[in-house]
């Protein structure tokens, strides 16, 4: 069992797809469940991750106009539904605010984290992770707004550990999948979760099982 030498703190970047007309989105911490190759940093089976702060944002991922595939290296993350980023201009010059309204409803939702058979952070308001109080929402502040969870949580790389985001039943999530009106300016919207803590690597299966039993 060894600790990352020289790097006692690290972050795990996790993404989940948003789909039109689907009121839930799931983010998995397992390395085998990646949805955006090249930008996610998830947990391998031998990893234990300990954290007490977390960020929940939305990533706007540009699409390649030639291939139609995501370009995650150019994504931008926000923790507030900024109109400037979420309203596309229609052919007549008017604003298309459908995605903006759906994102507002996303922040009115809640989430629960499931670790194996246990639920943590049950029905936590997503709005808790919006841009810091006192900040001006009319000024773009990209990046992550970390929130102290006031407790230490443990993730096991070999277990089924996910966060399920649920929009309110009265919400409009019919236009939450993407923003943009043409292939050139189309951007997919993903839930972007980052947990901040430290990793312990345990490659021996017997020791790993023992450590896991002691941490529950």
Structural notes for this entry:
- It is a single chain.
- The protein has 216 residues and is mainly beta.
- The chain has one domain (2-215).
- 12% of the residues lie in helices and 39% in strands.
- The protein has helices spanning 83-86, 98-107, 205-215, and strands spanning 2-3, 10-17, 24-28, 47-62, 76-78, 88-89, 95-96, 110-115, 118-125, 147-156, 161-166, 178-179, 187-201.
- Strands 1, 2, 4, 5, 10, 12 and 13 form a seven-stranded antiparallel beta sheet that branches. Strands 3-11-8-9 form a four-stranded antiparallel beta sheet, with no helix packed on it. Strands 6-7 form a two-stranded antiparallel ribbon.
- A hairpin with a 2-residue loop joins strand 8 (110-115) and strand 9 (118-125).
Q: What is the CA-CA span between the terminal residues?
A: 18 Å
User: What are the secondary-structure elements, in order, as H or E?
Assistant: EEEEEHEEHEEEEEEH
Shape: globular
Oligomer state of the chains in this structure: single chain
Low-pLDDT sequence parts:
1-8
The proportion of strand residues reads 35-45%
Largest sheet: 7 strands, antiparallel
Structural class: mainly beta
Short description:
The chain is 12% helix and 39% strand. The chain has 216 residues and is mostly beta strands.
Note the topology.
Elements: E1 2-3, E2 10-17, E3 24-28, E4 47-62, E5 76-78, H1 83-86, E6 88-89, E7 95-96, H2 98-107, E8 110-115, E9 118-125, E10 147-156, E11 161-166, E12 178-179, E13 187-201, H3 205-215
Antiparallel strand pairs: 1-13, 2-13, 3-11, 4-5, 4-10, 4-13, 6-7, 8-9, 8-11, 12-13
């Amino acid at each position: 069992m060894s600790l990352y030498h020289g790097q006692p703190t690290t972050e795990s970047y996790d993404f989940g797809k948003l789909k039109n007309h689907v009121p839930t989105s799931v983010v998995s911490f397992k390395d085998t469940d990646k949805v955006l190759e090249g930008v996610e940093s998830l947990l391998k089976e031998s990893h234990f991750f300990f954290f007490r702060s977390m960020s929940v944002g939305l990533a706007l991922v540009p699409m390649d106009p030639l291939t139609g595939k995501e370009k995650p290296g150019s994504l931008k993350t926000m923790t507030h539904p900024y109109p400037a980023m979420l309203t596309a201009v229609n052919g007549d010059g008017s604003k298309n605010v459908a995605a903006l309204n759906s994102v507002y409803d996303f922040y009115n939702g809640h989430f629960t984290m499931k670790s194996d058979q246990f639920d943590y952070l049950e029905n936590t308001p997503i709005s808790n992770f919006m841009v810091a109080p006192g900040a001006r929402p009319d000024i773009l502040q990209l990046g992550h707004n970390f929130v102290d969870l006031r407790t230490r949580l443990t993730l096991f790389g070999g277990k089924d550990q996910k966060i399920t985001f649920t929009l309110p039943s009265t919400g409009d999530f019919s236009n939450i999948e993407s923003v943009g009106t043409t292939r050139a300016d189309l951007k997919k919207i993903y839930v972007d979760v980052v947990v901040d803590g430290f990793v312990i690597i345990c490659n021996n299966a017997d020791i790993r099982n023992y450590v896991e039993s002691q941490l529950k």
